[in-house]
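SEVERITY: medium
COMPONENT: batch folding queue
REPORTER: lab tech (J.R.)

DESCRIPTION
The queue accepted two submissions in a row. Attaching both inputs and their returned structure tokens so the on-call engineer can compare them side by side.

ATTACHMENT 1
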Amino acid sequence: MKIQSVEAIPYEIGMRKPLLFASGQMTKADHVLVRITTDDGVVGIADVPPRPYTYGETQDSVVAVITKVFSPLLVGADPFDRNKIAAGMARTVGNFTAKGGVDIALWDIIGKSVGKSVHSLLGGYTPSVRVSHMVGFASNEEMVEEALKYRETYGITAFKVKVGRRPARIDVEACAALREALGEDAELYMDANRGWNAEEALGVARACEGLNLLYFEEPCDAHEILGRRRLVQESPLAIVADESVPSLGDVARELHTGGASAISIKTARTGFTESQKILGLCEGMGVDVIMGNQIDSMLGSVATVTFGAAFKHSSIRAAELSNFMEFGDFIINEPLEISNGVIAAPTAPGIGATLDEDKLAAYRLDKE
């Protein structure tokens, strides 16, 4: 079996409501669908979410690097040789989500060709994972209303709270309002998306000490090296690295040099292959992981639950899996469902998703 063709299809779907956070906002999903086809007709798919405010990738750059740089490496290759392919792509710096999408599509081909779900091939630890919902910037009343809706409708009891505004007391008060409304049993944690400097972030961590929060994600820019290390040492909350750890090497650096005490794994940027390595490093060091959300589409969320449910260490905490419900539509035939606060990992061969070709045709941007 050899790879015959590689497609990178730009498409756009609107959001039902904007998601606001410290480093940007999402009003539409301008993503790229990766489709890899073999000479015997097996098709692997993945979704790539370009985030210029996080990694510098754009929809156009993702399409270009996949079709002009990665495609020559892929066409004619055996899809089972994913580590060889990864080594070839590694010669191109950056482009994390483009590489992640290619890797996921290769795993999809592998699973379909052997008739097994990728969830089972990766390890198949648990059939489902708990869901955490991400609450964006809004008034306290609106944030509480959203959280209560997701709890009452879907049984979700874990919430990531977007913070990073000035004055910082706005976000401290928002966290306090959510804690009061949701009660002590709810799991709450903050994500500042680098919105503050280290000194501001330390003040927020101390101000929230009585709110029983689990984590404080990317409170300041990791390039603020000395301040970040002091923050990790003095914060009453565990500091989660996210945007600052887009690769295995970055994870190793931040953990070994004291830049973080927990890690967010996002399959959108490290695929399945590198995510396995990151997870193994964290488990071996006794470091908590969260399966994060790149404001993923439903197809992207399929990859997250597939990986997160495959291992014990990645399924301990609730995974960020609900924000696809804020998209105006989806392009796969098998919708994910949240019930009693969990999502089941797909069991069909591959990643367990197939394209709705009519919807892809309607939303793709490269139509003649």
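ATTACHMENT 2
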Amino acid sequence: MSGFVCVLTLVAILTQFFRERASITLTSLAFIFSQAFLNFSRAGTSYIPGLCFLLTGIFLLLRRNDGQSSLAPLWAGCALAVSALLWLPYVLSIPAALVSPLFILDNNRRWRCSLLAAAAFTIVSASVYGLVMLHLRIVNTEGLASWIAMSTWAAGVGGAKRAVFGLARSFINMGNDGLLFKRFLAQDPYNPVSVPQLFRLTLAKIVFFYAFMAGVVLCLARSRIGKNILGLLAINAATVGIFAVLWYGGDMERYLPLYPVLFLGICASMNVRGYEFWFRTLTIAFLAVIGLSNAIAMANFTINRDQQRVVERTRELLPYLTPQSRVFVHDTDDQLYAFSRNSPFHPLNRSGNFQANAILIPGTRRDLHWQQSFAVLALAVWDQHGTVWISKRVLSARPLSEWNWVEGSDSRVRWKDTFFFFSDLDWGTSVGSTDGFVLLLPTQKNRGELTQFLAGASV
């Protein structure tokens, strides 16, 4: 429903300024088929509800109805506050949203709209955070700093190269070729990737995406309203871009705060006199690329194929599992780790016996003490008379290419760390093929080894 309202609100915004139905339709379709929106509109995250309120706030600020209610800017500020409260990175789009009337509207109420919206945004945000802090009994700066620190579980893998790739990935599915790009940037010694290998479909998609973005900028610079939107887009891109460089710029959801102004600019580019035909043609080509790439990646047959791989891999393990069992995979890039989240209604997940945990979560602080984290879980399972099953991948001296591991993506952990850690433990029953699972025995030696890590951590 939030995704549906997003589309309707975007159309309402575009209709305020442009009359050509073709440009509005093409822009809306590009918005629908962009990978981040298409993916997360079918997920249980707060990204799309937050985007819904962001678009609603911008729509209320940019309404061109002179008889509109004087409360519209206040409602706009409230909507923008809810957007940032649902997902904090939407705060990056708030400066551009609040000043959007100054750039786009031409009436005498522009400053009043922006100031009222800013006041409402500040009051609502401060009130909600104040109530939460009151509930948590946070009364000083030390308590506030501690609360913030509790939420910063991720290390924030950043960099300009990741941001360049992440922005394109937000629109176009890169498939497994995205893994090649990551290995190239990290200079993976186990599965190295050369420059010629990158001159494949991924690089072509990236080049095409930035060519399209360059076309948007050039077209916007050719008209008065286009220049205003370009200035607004520059403000929005600056805040979103800086954050992306510093914090997980490769994640496609990182650029959702940029979507409202960017798609407004795309529609405006198709209405620049003298450039309508060629840019609409370019937009149709862009729509065809993202539509085909993203629709195939998220089609039912693709999802069913991926699910079948997981089922085949775990088929021989299932008879050994009980509700007290835990299955451990090497890292979060293993398909098994995200299977319960991506396919919650699959019979394998509904049985209640299959629980997959990742030993490593690259890019997070957990990797600083992953041995202790594993020891805590394994010992707790044994204390409850459960069984601990480990993916055989941890006993391999080097990762295979299809295991999606990228050596160097997190400099604090290496593949050989887990290999040496597990190689010296006692093992029991082995099930499945070479990519199957093996039972970690609750022997005195294993308990002693894991307990030592806990003792070291406490010291």
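NOTES FROM REPORTER
The longest helix spans residues 110-135.
No errors were logged for either attachment.
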